[in-house]
Amino acid sequence: MSASGLYPSLLLLLWSLLSSASSQCDHSSENSKINLNVDYKLPTFTSEFPIQNMVTLDGIIYVGATNRIYALSPNLTKLSEYSTGPLRANETCRLQTHNPNTKLDNRNIALVTENIYDKGLYSCGSADNGICRRHVLYEDDEIGPKMVDDEVYCFTDRARLRKGVDSDVVVSASGSQVLNVESNLIKFFVGNSEIPGNTATPNTHTISVRKMKTSQNGFTFFSSGAHMDLLASLRGNYYLRYVYSFNSGPFTYFLTVQHVSKDSTAFHTRIIRMCATDSVIRRYVEMPLQCISTDKRRKRSTEDVKVFNILQGAYVSKIKEDTELQKQLKVGPNDDVLFAAFAKGKPDSPEATSDSAVCVFSLNHINNMIRRYMQSYECDPHEGMHEGRESTYRLQITQFLPRLEYWHQDLSHTLLTSITVATVHARTVAYLGTSDGRHLQVRVILFSRSSSPHVNIALDSAPVSSSLLLQDQGRLLVATGNKITSVPLIGPGCDQLTTCTSCLLSSRVTECGWCNGRCTRSSQCSSAEWSQEYCAPVITKFWPISAPLRGSTSLTICGHNFGFDKTESFRSSMVSVEVGGASCKLDRHGGWTELQCTPVFNGNFTIKNKDVKVTSGTKVAKMEGFAFGVRKFKMYIF
């Protein structure tokens, strides 16, 4: 063969190498593109002191802050306030041993409402050494609410307290979870944290249940079996933090972060379940919860699994209208679901790192697991707690309940501090707070490629508090440091969403649509082109740039929004392709970003142009530069 006969082969090889180097579509999704610099003007309330808790009663918002209790209107206008500190020793609800001339700040540990007697508010502060104050808010519904400072008194029987009766000592300065479970009486379930190095509040019980006395001057225990405590040998040495509490059906639950065992230096999260109707702690179970992330593309191995062991926040909600999520979780419209924000802890430490994930647990699944382990006796008698006397069961399940994370991909450098969940337009949305003061909103879709936030805004430099408050007006109150911000559940606006894809994927929640290259609400679009249905396709490149006429060359087209609509599925019926005027049969697709097709020639086909044309829905994209050629053969004679 002559040297010239080698050139076509060499050129073909070089072209093939160059083509393969460039013949890859960029599959990075547009739907995660969000402008973090957008600033929205939102209603706020600013306190003189750091805010710890928020509750609502009959539309009025009550705020527990250091040294203050505030009553706010739904639009965050201050209605009244009550000063809880700083306090001297003789001003507290319980005699103190500190210097009588020294004033102590009074941090709000718990804020609880009640509805049975006069509608009231209990504010429990750190300076009152475990005692709560009762604010009488309503004595006559026709008259309306009182100011939060009108009628306030220490909720204790001082005579009984002096005799050493400790049922009025409710909370701990290390932190507490107080849950009011009302039936025909007011009953407080209380979990008090035990943090080594913190000054302990005298006479507090680790976990307890107490009822309000009908005389309305304190609490009483039903019996000595109404509380449990850490063993004396563990107090001051064993880390136990109560993070969240809730009531669901016949049960009361607490979520904790604590040592794996009394002899372990590792930490994990547990769920505690008690019967809400019990007057004493007779039926008590603990079980570890674990949130894990794994590479779903590979067969799971120990090395692939990342464990998020430190609970940061949680929220329990029904998902009545979101039938899609109900099917994924295998729950009904009236079943409770636990949404939990976890972080990866430092080794042998309860301190969280900036690596977070969100996991979703069905309460039915948790209860079924508890039942199964109890029936198989894979439980240990509870270690570390002193029960006082024998009861029906007090058990610790040592086998953890793992759950694959619902969302982690955007949180690998983020420390979540809070979570709440709401249903918006029949879609479940998670509202997340971060340690750097950001507020995120993301739709909950299990196993979805588009689980990226449609809202990610900076509220403050202070961390978002775990105390969030949903309002009936379709807004969420978020506390950061001294400030409360009111954020719409549908999101504060559309300007953060910079691409049509991200705009439309969020549209079922945000009410946004695409208008002349911008994401807006319909009222902000003067054009008739506002759409919540389709995005125009975009071609970025294709190859090869030529092919023999009437050949069977496969053409690859890269771009965006091919067959895309807001259902998040590729719809081939929406897509048609033409090459040089010839129809191109769709062979395969790579989501919304890649198409592969083969030209189809009918009859006496005539080349009309050099365009590659993609039609998606009613929108069209074109790119020039393709050429059909006639096959030419050279004969070499040797």
From TrEMBL:
The protein's matches in Pfam families, at most eight in alphabetical order, are given as: PSI, Sema, TIG
Q: Where in the cell is it found?
A: Membrane
Give the signal peptide as a residue range, or say none if absent. Answer: 1-23
| Entry GO terms, CC | plasma membrane; semaphorin receptor complex
- Could you tell me which InterPro entries the record lists for this protein? Ig-like_fold (IPR013783), Ig_E-set (IPR014756), IPT_dom (IPR002909), Plexin (IPR031148), Plexin_repeat (IPR002165), PSI (IPR016201), Semap_dom (IPR001627), Semap_dom_sf (IPR036352)
Topologically, how does it sit relative to the membrane? Answer: Single-pass membrane protein
Query: Which biological processes are named by the entry's GO terms?
Result: axon guidance; regulation of cell migration
Instruction: Alphabetically list the UniProt keywords.
Output: Disulfide bond, Glycoprotein, Membrane, Repeat, Signal, Transmembrane, Transmembrane helix
Q: Name one GO molecular function term.
A: semaphorin receptor activity
Q: Which residues form the Sema domain?
A: 26-489
Query: According to its UniProt record, which protein family does this protein belong to?
Result: Belongs to the plexin family.
* Name the UniProt record assigns to this protein: Sema domain-containing protein
Organism the protein comes from: Periophthalmus magnuspinnatus
